[in-house]
Amino acid sequence: MTLDKNTISEDFKQIQSHICEELQKADGKGTFIRDAWERPEGGGGMTRVLTEGQVIAKGGVAFSAVHGPTPDKILKKLQLEKADFFATGVSIVIHPVSPRVPIIHMNIRYFEMSNGVYWFGGGIDLTPHYLAPEDAVFFHKALKTLCDRFDPTYYPTFKKWADDYFYLPHRQETRGIGGIFFDRLTETNEQSAENIFEFVKEVGYLFPKIYTHFMEKNAALPYGDSERAWQSLRRGRYVEFNLVWDAGTKFGLDTNGRTESILMSMPPLATWQYNQKPSEGSAEKFTVDHLKKGIDWINFSI
Amino acid sequence: MTLDKNTISEDFKQIQSHICEELQKADGKGTFIRDAWERPEGGGGMTRVLTEGQVIAKGGVAFSAVHGPTPDKILKKLQLEKADFFATGVSIVIHPVSPRVPIIHMNIRYFEMSNGVYWFGGGIDLTPHYLAPEDAVFFHKALKTLCDRFDPTYYPTFKKWADDYFYLPHRQETRGIGGIFFDRLTETNEQSAENIFEFVKEVGYLFPKIYTHFMEKNAALPYGDSERAWQSLRRGRYVEFNLVWDAGTKFGLDTNGRTESILMSMPPLATWQYNQKPSEGSAEKFTVDHLKKGIDWINFSI
C-alpha cells in the first residue's frame, strides 16, 4: 500500500483534537487536560482527560504512536514473525454525569510491522444505563449509513462482531447495545488500504456527531437518586467487562502498557450489590432484558 | 490419607458459621443473610453476606462443596489426568465502613480427585487503606505464631508466597501488607495430611480473632471526607487486583462458576481518578510507599 505510517498517525492526532474540541463545546464547562507520556522502548502518546464537566463526569480521549521491537507476548498472541512494529490509535471512553446519557467507547487503530504486515481495527459501542429505543435506532442507523458508503457487508459483519466482543460471559449479557467492531482489516479485492483508512477516519469523525447528539438531547432529562444508584451499578458492570474480558485492556496491562492511559476507561465511581436484580416491569429490567446479542436495532421498536 | 471429604467439608461449614457469628457480634448491627445455591453439575454452596453494618460495609463469607467430572479447563490449567473431582472451601472478603479498618481476605480450600490426587490451600491477607505499623506487626505475628506451631518453614515460605501472589504488576504495588498464601499442600515426610488439615482449620479459626481485633480497635478512630475518598480509591485497586490478576476469580469466571459468590469480593463502592498521586509526606503516600514485597513486617517500625 502507498499509505505512510506518519500520515496515519498525524491524521489520528487530528481526529483526537477534533473530538476533544467538539466534546468540550457540547459539555460547556469541563476542559480536557493534556498528559503527554513517552514509552521507554520507543514512541509515546498524549492522553487527554476531562473530569467533572457539566455533561461528562469522566472522559478520556487518548492518542498514542509507539514503535520498537515487537514484544514477545504480542508475537506469540498474534502469531507473528519476529520484526519491529509500529502502532497508532485513538481510544475513547466517556462516562456521563446523567444516567440518561449513555456511556460510549470508540477506538481506531493501525498496526504495521517492518516485514510488511499491517492492519486497521476499531469500533464504537454504546452502553445506555437506561435503554431508550429511539437512541438505539439513531446510533445503529448512523453506523450503518457510514458502513454502507464503503461496503454493504461492513455493517452486518461488524455489528455481529461487536455483539460477540462486547459481551460478559459471566453475566450472560452484552455490555450495552453493541455497535460495530472490526480488526485486522487489510486490503482485499474489494477494498484498498486507502479506502479502509478513509473508513477508519470517518468512524473517528462520526464519533463526536453521535455523542454530542446524545449529550444535547439527554443531559437535561430528569432523574433522581434511584436512577443514579442504577447508573453506579451499571458502571460496575462496565468495570467488570473492561478488567475481565476486554482484550485490549488485558493485553495492555499484561505487556507493560501505560496503566493510567489504559485505565482511563474506569468510571469515576462504581458500586456493587450482592445479587442485585431489577424488579419486574421496571425500566431497569427492560434495559437488562435487552442486553442480548443479535437484536436488530435498526428496526427496533417496542 | 485417612481423612474423609465429608468430614472436611462439614468442618469448613462449621468454620463458616463460627466466623459469621463472631463478625456479627463484633459488628453489633448487621446480620449475615443466607443464600443457598446449587451447582447444576453437582454440589452447591451457602453464601452469606452482611451489608450496611456498623463496622462492616459489605462482607461475604462463602462456603461451597462441589463435585462432578473435572471441567476440561481445570484439567488443562492444573495439568491433571481426567477424573472426577471434589472441592470444598470457605472464602471471605470484608470491606469495612471506616477507612481506619483494613480490608481483609481469607480462604481455606480442599481439592481431591477420584484418582487419589488431593491438596489443601488457603491464605489470609490484609489491605489497610492507611498503613498502621502496629496493626501490621500484630497481623504478621499472629500468622507467624500459628504457622510456627506446625512447621518453622511455613511462615517464611507462605509470607513470600503471599507477597508474590497479592501483587498488581500494572501498578507495581502489592495489594496490601500481604499475609500468608499456600497451595497444593499435601502430605510430606514432615507433615501428615491430618496435620495439614489441622493447620488449615486453625487458619480459619484465627481469622475472626484477627479481624474482630481490628474492628474493635479501629472502628471508632476519627476520619473525614478526605480519608473516605482515599478509601474509595484503594477499593478501586482492590477491584483491579481481583478482576485482573486474582487466579481464583479469573478462573471462577472463566469456568462458569457462580458469579455472585465469586464477585461478593467487590467493594460496595469504588472510585477511579486519572493519574491520582498522593502528596509527599502524607499518610496516603506513606501507605503506598510500603506496598512492596519483602518487607519484614514482624520487626517493622518507623
Salient structural properties:
homodimer, oxygen-dependent coproporphyrinogen oxidase, 10 strands, 302 residues, seven-stranded antiparallel β-sheet, alpha+beta, two-stranded antiparallel ribbon
Short recap of the structure:
With 302 residues, the first copy, chain A, is an alpha+beta fold.
Percent of residues of chain A in beta strands? 25-35%
Could you give me the name of the CATH homologous superfamily of chain A? Coproporphyrinogen III oxidase, aerobic
Q: Return the CATH topology of chain A.
A: oxygen-dependent coproporphyrinogen oxidase
**N- and C-termini, Cα separation of chain A:** 47 Å
**Compute the gyration radius of chain A: what is it?**
19 Å
Oligomeric form of this entry? homodimer
Q: Give helix and strand order of chain A, one letter per element, not per position.
A: HEEEHEEEHHEEEHHHHEH
Q: Report the helical percentage of chain A.
A: 40-55%
Average predicted local confidence, pLDDT of chain A? 96
CATH class wording of chain A: Alpha Beta
The helix/strand class of chain A is alpha+beta
Counted beta strands of chain A: 10
CATH architecture of chain A: 3-Layer(aba) Sandwich
Q: What's the helix count of chain A?
A: 9
Total number of distinct structural domains of chain A? 1
Point out poorly predicted stretches of chain A: none
Biggest chain pair interface? A-B, 33 and 32 residues
